[in-house]
Amino acid sequence: MQRFPPSGYFVGSAVFHYLGPAFAVLLFTRVEPMGVAWLRIASAALILGIWRRPWRALSQADPAARRLIALMGLVLAAMNASFYTAIDHLPLGTVAAIEFLPVIGLAALGMRTARNAAALGLAACRRGGRR
Question: Does this model's pTM top 0.90?
Answer without folding.
Answer: no
